[in-house]
Write a structure and sequence with these properties.
Blueprint: H1 2-91, H2 95-101, H3 103-124
Length: 125
């Protein structure tokens, strides 16, 4: 009988081990499934990062081109402003320049007016 008791205890322990082994197998399968899903997520994450890198390169290139165009437009607007200012200045009457270019005529005209005034004064008096 004593042997039967030992066998019963051994059988009970084997049943416990059997149950634990089933739990380990179930957990191993769960862990494998989790590992597979994580691997898929990491692969998609890698693809996303590569795509994001390409997008950032494109954005950087576009930004550089836009900066170049903006700088060129700024220079062209500056040149146009200079031309407009020049046209505005040419449209104004520059008396100093006018007198400088026509001083001889002013002196001759003033002399004629002076002589005419003197002659008028002589005739009237």
């Amino acid at each position: 009988m004593e042997d039967n008791g030992k066998y019963d205890r051994i059988e009970g322990r084997l049943d416990d081990m059997d149950e634990r082994l089933r739990e380990v197998e179930i957990n191993a399968a769960s862990y494998q499934e989790i590992t597979n899903r994580n691997t898929e997520v990491l692969e998609r994450f890698n693809d996303t990062m590569v795509s994001m890198k390409d997008t950032m390169i494109d954005i950087s290139y576009s930004t550089k081109k836009n900066t170049e165009v903006t700088n060129k437009l700024t220079q062209e607007v500056g040149a146009l402003n200079d031309k407009v200012d020049s046209v505005d200045d040419k449209g104004k009457l520059d008396t100093t320049l006018f007198l400088k270019d026509n001083w001889r005529g002013w002196i001759e005209g003033g002399g004629v007016v002076f002589i005419a005034t003197c002659l008028y004064q002589m005739i009237v008096h």
